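User: My collaborator sent over this chain with a note saying "see what the structure looks like." That's all I know about it. Can you take a look?
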Amino acid sequence: LRNTFYAFAKHLESVGDLPAAISCFEKSETHRMEVPRLLLDIPHELEAYVTKSTDGALWKWWASYLESAGEMEAAVHFYEKCKAHQAHVRVLCYCGRLQEANVVALQSGDKSACFHLARQYETMVRLMLF
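Assistant: Without extra context I'll predict from the sequence alone. Here is the result:
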């Protein structure tokens, strides 16, 4: 049944019925890849779709997209929302918000987030010595 919904969604996309295509992509469980591709040229529609979604994987993709576009504050919000602790800490460190990064790393207990923060602190110490 998923293949049928996917094929029908592709057909709907080709005839320009985007809302119905999105619905079918969701039913085929391919919406995480297909809907962003479909709406990439319509940024306000894509943002509205992601914002009203409850899909953590979609939020993480959106946060990554925002980060690549240089919208760090919005990326921080979505990384926090989807509980992507390592990415959240990484962006906070990039923005110079080490205290917040420290809180996120310690509260989450995420090993990769803590490791990233530790590397940031090591780099700061090395820079102070030279």
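A starting point for your reply to your collaborator: Residues 76 and 91 are 7 Å apart (CA to CA).
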